Amino acid sequence: MPTMYSSAFASPKIVQHLNLRSNEKPLFDPSKSAPPTSFFGSTHEFCLSKTTTLSSQHRRSAVVAAAEAVKLRKSNSSASPSNLLITKEEGLELYEDMVLGRVFEDMCAQMYYRGKMFGFVHLYNGQEAVSTGFIKLLKKEDSVVSTYRDHVHALSKGVPARSVMSELFGKATGCCRGQGGSMHMFDKEHNLLGGFAFIGEGIPVATGAAFTSKYRREVLNENCDDVTVAFFGDGTCNNGQFYECLNMAALWKLPIIFVVENNLWAIGMSHLRATSDPVIWKKGPAFGMPGVHVDGMDVLKVREVAKEAIGRARRGEGPTLVECETYRFRGHSLADPDELRDPGEKAHYSSRDPIIALKKYLTENNLASEADLKAIEKKIDEVVEEAVEFADGSPTPPRSQLLENVFADPKGFGIGPDGKYRCEDPKFTEGTAQV
Fold this sequence. Notes:
It is built from 15 helices and seven strands. It is an alpha/beta fold and 435 residues long. It has two domains: 87-393, Thiamin diphosphate (ThDP)-binding fold, Pyr/PP domains (Rossmann fold); 407-434, no CATH class. The strands form two sheets. It has a five-stranded parallel beta sheet with strand order 1-2-3-7-6, with helices on both faces. A two-stranded antiparallel ribbon has the order 4-5. The radius of gyration is 23 Å and the shape is globular. InterPro entries: DH_E1 (IPR001017), PDH_E1_Alpha_Subunit (IPR050642), Pyrv_DH_E1_asu_subgrp-y (IPR017597), THDP-binding (IPR029061).
């Protein structure tokens, strides 16, 4: 692996503290005629303070090392096919997973507006490179912890589309038997440890899962190299659980990767306005772990960073903080009219669609033909259509399921003296006085 890339994961001493000027330019300035082409790692858009002791070149090698490594390997790809970032099989797998996520979410929008789904539904469109780039490198035994934007994480981890769609429909055939819904996907078989509606609450769960892996290997002497990946957004990085768990994970060298899906907006609040220092990746070195920034709109760059971070965790070298700068193409949820973001900003990121970028890479490097990709798209359309038919035809949960999985011992509330669930009493819904 090129030295330039490895430097992103080197000793925290390499990645020193950086001070940003208070009058920094925003990542996207609507007053300019053309949107910027650079990300947080660019020294052009995010200039360093004149008082910093770290040169811009050192900062660049630390922050965008992954992007530079990809560029370097791309420049050598013409010499030999073996220098390509992925094989044909890997490329088709990545493309299929990303297309599945996009088509599934588009179908969710249709079903929501038709009244098939209820509550809040948060879609993942535009961020597929992050989910696919990390999760498709994991084993089934590895754990994933998600947020309320969790449908695509579940699909990438292998949860069947029909199970996810049924859960969204509130049906008994869903992965949580209809009791979780959009924001609480969970699947024990695939080690999807849940979507969490409140930001930050999934990070301690992920840290506990990583501790379990370390305990099994070092205390129980089991052959366990399982890792955990915790996904969360930029807004979560202002919450206490984030810092507490970074500290604990670094202190105990836990096999966990903290993945920040920085889509630049926390509901309607710009990340640049909400955070005193918007460069998230450097919070990793502050706690003694590598911090890396990567273009989250490029699945190949994300995949390269993920390989190194997951490898470190498996080798027992501890956690990594990865900031993936991405963008959601839809509003915060399907109830959000998305009127706060500048149209020019949205157009800029739409032009960097991660699926189109991967498709271009595959065809230009002769890894796949248009026919190959069309076949995948047709297959996914059929999978999603079948998932909707299955969910629509599935039964709703019985009333007897209402109090299941609420209490560890339901006898104190959910089961009456006759041994039957109290919710089966016809008067149960009249009010709590009857219970």
